[in-house]
Amino acid sequence: MGKLTIADIAARAGVSKATVSRVLNDRAEGVGAETRARIRAILETTGFQPSAMARGLATGESRSVGLIVPDVTNPFHPLLVSGAEQALSDAGYSLFLCNTGSDAAKQGDYIRVLIDKRVDGVILDSVGFEAEAQVRLLEREGIPVVLLDCVIGRRAQRHGVFLDNGHGVREAMAFLFRRPDRRLVFISGPPDVSQSVDRRESVEALAREWGLDGGRLTTLDGDFTLERGCQLTTERIRSRRAGRAPPFNAVFAANDMMALGALKALRQGGVSVPGEVEVMGYDDIPFARLLDPPLSTVAQPAREMGAASAELLLRLIGAEKPRRKTVVMKPRLILRGTTLDPEIFHTESYRGANHAEL
Known about the structure:
Blueprint: H1 6-13, H2 17-24, H3 33-46, H4 52-59, E1 64-69, H5 76-90, E2 94-99, H6 104-116, E3 121-124, H7 131-140, E4 145-148, E5 160-163, H8 165-176, E6 184-188, H9 194-210, E7 217-221, H10 226-241, E8 250-253, H11 256-268, E9 278-283, E10 296-299, H12 302-317, E11 326-329, E12 332-334, H13 348-351
Parallel strand pairs: 1-2, 1-3, 3-4, 4-5, 5-11, 6-7, 6-8, 8-9, 9-10
Antiparallel strand pairs: 10-12
Helix pairs in contact: 1-2, 1-3, 5-12, 6-7, 8-9, 10-11
């Protein structure tokens, strides 16, 4: 026998499909107590479970949410996903995970798919600043949207969960420039990603505030990948050794993947870390603490951010007015083996020494 349908249950109970649907969805109107008990007994005996799509059509809710991320191969994004998925699962919602591969056009395709699937809401970790039109499409369809770790338009314009990148960059830069002879290479991320822009602008603002010249701070254009971090650092090592670039004794990458690439290049180039060059990342992906030496980094509360985005979206789906339209979380500096013990810089031996650099 094939899978039972609502029509089969209705035939056995001698009622209409609409009556069965009211019982399945706990609607009190239009069903007497005796009929309700008879239908429930048949449901229990047969073990009938309505499909999610059928229930969604009956209730106007799919009990599902779409989550769009730019790159699931970056270990940071699964942390966001796990936090959101757990909060949604606890509330009885399923998750459609969409990976855009950092392709704005593919992101638009996924948004249209999620609309067709009648999801109850969307969490968007966007790529590209042109996402404004895509978000407006969701809004026109009456689908609540929460931005996660990205800014589209003005931050206060839409509901979202964000990181205080200015705070994270200041913490990292203050630590790195504790050293009076610091010569830093900063590897920025892609120019069309709001997190990357925030971090670069924060570095540049501090450089102006602290009066850092080109000899003390050099900015390179990265793309958040390990390969680009390795390539840029390799080129910098070669340029320095050929006398075409100034010396440097630290690398600060705008995410951990590029920091891992920098570490690879430094190791291949025979440069000691942290003795000659200190390295700082941003994110605190799980691999960061497993490296040798383990990576110093600016840690984002990724799982908490994912969970907060889901909780905010659930309030919007329930037509509640959230107490706060935006949630801003603070990162924290984590010092590990790719940076020197800060106490060393307060000693007489350090102040009188010739400090290593590349």
